[in-house]
Amino acid sequence: MNMVAIPRTANLAALRESGWQSKPVKFEIRDNFVRMLAAGEELYPGIVGYEDTVIPEVNLALLAGHDMLFLGEKGQAKSRMMRMLTRFLDEWIPYLDHPDLPVHEDPYHPITSLGKRLVAEHDPEDVKIGWWHRSDRYAERLSPGTKFADIIGEIDPAKLTGGVSMSAEEALSFGLIPRMHRGIFAMNELPELDDLVQVGLFNILEERDVQIRGYPVRFDLDVMILFSANPSTYNRSGKVIPQLKDRIGSIIQTHYPQERDQGIEILQQETGGELAGDYPVQVPYFMFEVIEEITNQARRSKYIDHASGVSARFSLSNFRTMVASARQRAVIFNERPAVPRISDLGHIYSSSLGKLELDLMGSHQMSERQVLEHVVAAAIETVFKKYIEEHGLGEISEIFGRGVRVEVGDLLASEQYASRLQRVPPVWEKAFEVNAADDPAVRASCVEFVLAGLYSMERISRSQKHGKISYEFES
């Protein structure tokens, strides 16, 4: 009913005549979800790789009217999924428009004393109605540093001096959760939340009341509560009080992309609009694969703490650094399009360091830079082997001949690679699906990928000096 175009009336009498019906927020979400599901609408636009795992569990939780905990490592779209649930709210809902009301009161079912008096003691035509958009019905808080007063409330001394009793709701300065009455509230990193605040949350969820400085104040709140947490801290004994765990209706376990192509799809989705401009960037698909494989290798590396995880932001930061290096070269040499190369990855240290948490309990002693070098080398080898298996190593390696020394670098013009490869072999057109024969910048990127791949398989030697890398084929 509420998704039908309801005129945004100005007073309570007109609202009643309009046919608008009041619903608890979880019923509202459920009904809109069912309508969209039945109509075949896209439910979670932009979410990749969760179709058969996470999304079915979220769907069931919405139908069940559950509060939810999104449990997963960093960079697994937990916050994005929580924020996306606002799409299942009505676009607009009415509320009692009075400056002294601390919450967006349901005109038919007010919960505060003031709201109840406003409806009971005034003519419906004199009761003003405001309209609350769904984009404003979501609030989010990060647990570290969060105090009881921030999300639940505190006694307001100014109201006490005015004669209000401490046990009355009028004495309370409302926190975020009461202000999200008829909306959605999300708490990120639940295990980091202070124990006292966890108890307050449990009381609000289960008992609808809370004690503030020893005085009980009762709320009849209507709110969906969402949480996020990392498995390593959520499952640690004593981090989350058992009563709060018991109150959470559904635990939704998230994960990283299960296929490299899914990670690349996310990467392209997040950065597609960034490649245009005065110096447009054309990224060969194998460079997308290398960037995403660097992240995959980091997630599997024995040198990196698996409990922490490696965020999708790691791929995004490295991709943007690589693109920036290619664009800088394009500006210097007036090349269009700019085409990223393997040598551009030499700059991803700046966008990678600090994002990897080393496994300090292991027996190995490697710096973060050394770990990153190991991860990048493994990624190049993994991607290159795929091309070898699909297109053959012999024809690719033979194109360089014997006894050839090739110098590469991120600040070398693409034309300098032309003399190294007079004729583009047919296999390249098939393997790389790019115009290597026509575009020197694309050809340079292909050359570097093959050289780095051959080096990773110990087919050629490499030396580095003053930021430039030389590959040499033994005669």
Provide an overview of this structure.
There is one protein chain. With 475 residues, this protein is an alpha/beta fold. The protein folds into two domains: 12-253, Rossmann fold; 260-472, no CATH class. It is 40% helix and 13% strand. It has 19 helices and 14 strands. The strands form five sheets. It has a five-stranded parallel beta sheet. The mean pLDDT is 85.
- Cα(first) to Cα(last) distance is 79 Å
The number of helices is: 19
- DSSP E strands, number: 14
What is the gyration radius calculated from CA atoms? Answer: 29 Å
Tally of distinct domains: 2
| CATH homologous superfamily descriptor of the largest domain | P-loop containing nucleotide triphosphate hydrolases
The poorly predicted ranges are: none
How does the major sheet shape up? Answer: 5 strands, parallel
> Which class of the largest domain in CATH terms?
Alpha Beta
What is the name of the CATH topology of the largest domain? Rossmann fold
Anisotropy-based shape: elongated
Mean pLDDT across residues? 85
Secondary-structure arrangement, i.e. CATH architecture of the largest domain: 3-Layer(aba) Sandwich
Write out the strand line-up for the largest beta sheet, numbering strands in chain order.
4-7-10-1-11
Helix content: 40-55%
**Which structural class matches the secondary elements?**
alpha/beta
Strand content: 5-15%
